[in-house]
Amino acid sequence: MKASVIGFVGLPLPFTQRPHYVSQRKELHSTPPARYGIAYMQASTAGAKQVLSTDRASKLPWTETIANDECPLFFMPFVEHQLSITRELPGLADLPFDEHLSYQKSEKPVARIESWAWKSTHFRKIRATYIDAGYKAQVFNSVWYPNPSYEHPLLGIDFLSFGKKKVLCVMDFQPLSQDKNYLEKYCARVKGIKEKYEGLSGTMSARFYDEAQFFSRQLVFAKFDNPGPIGSELFPAFKEYVEEYVNMIMEASPDESESSVSRVLQLHKDYDQYSAERDPAIGLFSTYWGKEWASAFTHEFLFSDSEPISEEQH
Ligand code: BLA
């Protein structure tokens, strides 16, 4: 029997649940002002075909791995849940990007990677990526960037499984400032959620990132030697974090002042640069799809406000 997503998590997917904010939300400013016309995605390669995430997302979920090892798609329920929330967002629209960045497959080793991106009235960019290389790698990675009239944290998600015994899960309301009041106001609110899930309160290493920049103390951080907790702990925690995050942004009062918007945009840019320079995934992308594609994917899709740094600066 082929492994099934639902069989693994053991829960019916929450398609029919309407997010709690839908009934609660206040009528907010309808469309973002024109000055948000920043580079949501890096300029596409001239003439490259652009794709729409909505079309491709309608073909989800993937139900079995592309590799020949029957590995369950551990994080596909997370993609589906996130999609069900995203689809309800007011003002949802595709963020078109180059086709070659949206999907790639490799034969040796067998792997595929697909990505999606949208914007909405409250979010300037919501991007998500799934990697399926069977047991070798299962990854769900996503970042939510609010419109720059909100100084709020970004929602960062990085869930990975390598081999049969290595699961790494990181999720955070990623703060744009380490100011005590900022952290208290925007990040501390998930403390109650995090405390419910004992297995998710590990500490990140200093191997790749600096925990004092763009991370908070409410970071969900977990390493497991088996996939069990993905369904029992991570999935419910993920649903609660996403709901809390979306509610926080939808209920916030935007600051449209030129000074605030440009300050926040600069911080998003700093986040993208910081992340692009530290992201350990670049090696993984290179292994499957080559160095050039890895660099384009990183700087044009994942962290599209980042600039590549030269080899010497590395
Ligand atoms: C670690 N993330 C990692 C590692 C890989 C990725 C390969 C190293 C795992 C290890 O060898 O221990 C993979 N990162 C990816 C992939 C993508 C990516 C596949 O961006 C893109 C598709 N990383 C993020 C985001 C957060 C994040 C948004 O991209 C924030 C929640 C966190 N990833 C994060 C942290 C670590 C990590 C903190 C280091 C874990 C440690 O301390 O060891």
From TrEMBL:
GO terms for molecular function: cobalt ion binding; oxidoreductase activity, acting on the CH-CH group of donors, iron-sulfur protein as acceptor. Transmembrane segments: none annotated. GO terms for biological process: phytochromobilin biosynthetic process. Keywords: Oxidoreductase. Pfam families: Fe_bilin_red. InterPro entries: Ferredoxin-dep_bilin_Rdtase (IPR009249). This is 15,16-dihydrobiliverdin:ferredoxin oxidoreductase. Belongs to the HY2 family. NCBIfam families: PRK13247.1.
